[in-house]
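So, can you check?
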Amino acid sequence: MAFLPSARWFMTVFRSLSDEQQGYLFTFITMCIWGAFGLMARMNAYWQIQIWDVLLLRFGIAAAVLLPILWWKKDYRFLFDFKMVVLALTGSIGYCVFVYSGFFYAPVAHGVVFLNGTFPLFAALIGYLMLRQPIDRQTGIGLSIIVITLLFMTVSMIIGDGHFGRGDLMFIASGLCWGLFSVLLRKWSFSAWHIMCGVAIWSAIIYTLIYVCFVTPAFDQVKPLHLAFQGIFHGIFVVIIATLTYAKAVAQIGIFKAGSIANLAPFIASIIAVPLLGEMLNTTLVIGLIGMALGALQPWRWFIGR
């Protein structure tokens, strides 16, 4: 019961904020969750949790939370649109299989470079091919920085320490899936709520069928507390809370400000991973992080009014 006064106090303070201040608060919440995502996904390797089991928890818990809400709202007809299945296959199942596998085999910093860097590159290229969406000058500069950084990183890692491996390839594949997913979202007009629910539910249906047919569960080999942490974080915080807070942030302060600030999270996470997980940052990775941050976030737009 002590929770109720605290909740009332928070809502009172929240309502006293301006729309812009609320937008920055939603952005901060999104940034915290997105930043923790890479760290939590990487923890699967340390806790030896099978990727396929984590995905079942993610999709299953999210669907279990959202289905009763849709039933109560009598708002489920959009689920029968085949476009939702395509979105689930690209932006959820495809993306998750690759990104979780990437974090299982490679450090957090590698994910920041090869995922957060390739996503805007693929999104721009696919958007041009599918929607004939032109690439403006500022975006072109950002993408050029990304391409140069990717080439430098790949060559340096192969020739130098030889640490370019399957995890990095997984991150690039996940960037491709997320880029395609982002373009399809622009092409098809769905609300944020419908996208979240449709993608989560169809992902649970499709993935559960695949899991039952082809995967041998390994839940008994993992500590229940670790499974609970992963299931709640990925199924509720990432799929539901971060989606809603980001949508609210975009609505109140705009997609550029919200996206730029929230996308700082993975870069911060790569630094936190050094003391928290004992991961190393060498000169090549630091240069890669700086290059990707400049190319993906395009900070100069803050000074030229976009």
